[in-house]
Fold this sequence. Notes:
This protein is an alpha/beta fold.
Amino acid sequence: MTPPIILASASRFRKSLLENAGVTFTVEPAQTDERAVEEALVDLKPDEVALILAEAKAQDVSSRNPGAIVIGSDQTLSLDGEMFHKAETMEQARHRLLKLSGRTHQLNSGIVLVRDGETIWRHMSIARLTLRDLDPGFVGRHLSSVGDKVLSSVGAYQLEGAGIQLFDRIEGDYFTIIGLPLLPLLAKLRELGAIDG
């Protein structure tokens, strides 16, 4: 009998990726205070922070679901070693896009599998994205057009929508950018016998 799979995330994007891949799973968002966890991680690199947060989420949900394989994931955005969080206001989103303008930033997507409190797999995928030089007037019009859904993304953009117009170059796969490195995850779930393969 295959173990149940639980996605420890409230992200509709991550849920949609797994559904589209045909994986049978349930969703149970973690009850983890990410900012509190981060406070203890001041000397770590942004990719390490993403993995630790992903593991904290998976461990939290695993503690309530014996036998299940729990998927924890987290994503950080870094620019020249500085880590960014989701913008809380549209003004912060405007500042974020202008700061990223003409520069290359990294999206660090960490994913962890936990079963019965034991971490059984960790993976990090990195995408590098270069925004074109953005005119401040265009940024304002863009944000007005797309609305506050940009606040759900650490970069203040949705690549799968009008946000694609902000970019000059993208290095990395779509799933890493959305925040769930799907190909390595599916390979590991097949290896564990959790999905057919």
